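Tokens for chain A. Residues wanted.
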């Protein structure tokens, strides 16, 4: 994914643990996949990760440096 660092610099870091790193999109940045503003971006750090989602939501995905990146849309 191009411009990943630029994207990250526009987001607010939230969670950082051994499995994931998440950022909140507080400034309505457009999702690189669907071009609609997303709610959160989640970078999966491990080869296999299970996510427990609190809400039903649409997901867009990307790959950056061999990590799966999820964009959530509520
Ligand atoms: Zn999207």
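Reply:
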């Amino acid at each position: 994914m191009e411009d990943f660092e630029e994207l990250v610099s526009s987001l607010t870091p939230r969670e950082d643990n051994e499995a994931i790193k998440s950022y909140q999109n507080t400034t309505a940045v457009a999702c690189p996949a669907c071009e609609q503003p997303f709610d959160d971006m989640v970078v999966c750090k491990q080869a296999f990760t299970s996510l427990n989602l609190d809400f039903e939501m649409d997901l867009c995905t990307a790959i950056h440096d061999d990590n799966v990146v999820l964009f959530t849309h509520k």
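Helices lie at 4-9. Residues 4-73 form one domain.
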